[in-house]
Amino acid sequence: MNFTNFGKYILLLKAVFRRPEKTKIYVKAIFQQMDFIGVGSLGLISIISTFIGAVMTLQIAFQLVSDLIPKTIIGSVNRDSSILELSPTISAIVLAGKIGSAISSEIGTMRVTEQIDALEIMGINAPGYLILPKILAGITMVPILVIISMVLSIGGGYLGGTLSGAISAAEYIQGITTDFNPYTIVVALTKAFVFGFIITSVPAYEGFYVKGGALEVAQASTRAVVVSCISILACDYLVTQLLL
Amino acid sequence: MIEIKDIHKSFGDNEVLKGISGIFREGVTNLIIGGSGSGKTTLLKCMIGLHQPEQGSVLYDDREFTQLNFQERIEIRKEIGMLFQGSALFDSMTVEENIMFPLNMFTEQSRSEKLDRANFCLERVNLEGKNKLFPAELSGGMKKRVGIARAIAMNPKYLFCDEPNSGLDPKTSIVIDELIKELTEEYNTTTIVVTHDMNSVMGIGDYIIFLHEGKKFWEGSNKEISKTDIAELNDFVFASRFMKAAKGKL
């Protein structure tokens, strides 16, 4: 995104947060989007998180081959990595691909088929009607998905570690319960909130300003995923730097 | 009544509209005609606020539209119905939901009242019983008719139609044209139709503006159009073999 695009993005957000015409209709749209973003992504996030947790445990066990380091460390490292980085960031990148491309192509198609013009002619604030429910659903559901991801990732680590014999169940549980700092959850949820905003607003922006036809909608969709992923990684660094 | 005064619009260095003026009265079908790239759709978009003209004004019953901000325009937009070239129906909604959408957004009517209005509009465009179909399940002509039904749902004072016959067979085109004319006369709306279809011009053109290279070249009625000696207009009107053959009889 260059500076012109960034300016347009800010102006679009200004229009998005105008007072809704009819709150009842917006509330219904928010719940529909929460279903799409949250419930619709639950299966994918669950599979990815469980496997990442399991693989992480195996890799940590492989790297910590020393009699001086207790095996409980495997659980601690897996827990902190999952909470602080893997669950929020990997979930966000996966969601940027799944949700981001869907949002961009939905809004982009509405643009090229004049559906957005139709909304505007009716006197409806099109950015607000189309984008606000998605952003509100994103910043609500992505943190919930990240919490589920954390639990499943740590659970996946337990399964991976115990089934392979890399660590015993007692050692793993001792590891994940030792020296737990609840502040890491705050950091992770802050990240999830920011990522939820990026995953919904950036693709919406790319779709909203599409010009042309099917080819341009596809290009906007690709651009939406790329820009969202880069923005997620940049914000990941910023939030980590600010909060830790 | 809608009045446009000296509308200028450019895209970069390309000046698309070069000072268009005109008065569109209520109760008659007003047509904006011209070849491809003559600026018809751009003029329409300037009139409804999808494009901002660099110069000139658009007056809806003496209310200056171009100088209004987004919030102020909403009141006038509630009085506008628009039929788009591609119908622009909302894909995710059924026919009934499409028609009820503006009512949901801007009225406090009960669900049964809105449903009655949707059914009335569907009946008006001869699509009774198609309430639960999605746009993807409709033919081109049916989509246009649903587009008209949605456009009239709020009882508009102003009705805009962008190429209502594009992509339709001649018989369906006539049905759409007649429907637009009937609604205009029945509800006394100020109707503006952008078209390059000569059947529409001859059939429903009560008042016609002819655009050529961004300028207004001619204005008059469908009865006068075949009797002009303006070369550009004659080239447009009598471009087809059929119209050339019919020239002597008009």
UniProtKB/TrEMBL annotation, chain A:
KW Cytoplasm (keyword) present: no
GO molecular function: phospholipid transporter activity
Keyword hit for Phosphoprotein: no
Gene Ontology cellular-component annotations: ATP-binding cassette (ABC) transporter complex
Transmembrane segment boundaries: 36-62, 135-159, 180-200
Keywords: Membrane, Transmembrane, Transmembrane helix
Protein name: ABC transporter permease
TrEMBL record, chain B:
GO molecular function: ATP binding; ATP hydrolysis activity
Keyword ATP-binding assigned: yes
Entry-linked Gene3D superfamilies: P-loop containing nucleotide triphosphate hydrolases
Pfam families registered for this protein in UniProt: ABC_tran
Boundaries of every ABC transporter domain copy: 2-238
Keywords: ATP-binding, Nucleotide-binding, Transport
PANTHER family: INTERMEMBRANE PHOSPHOLIPID TRANSPORT SYSTEM ATP-BINDING PROTEIN MLAF, PROTEIN TRIGALACTOSYLDIACYLGLYCEROL 3, CHLOROPLASTIC
Record's protein name: ATP-binding cassette domain-containing protein
Gene source species: Pedobacter cryotolerans
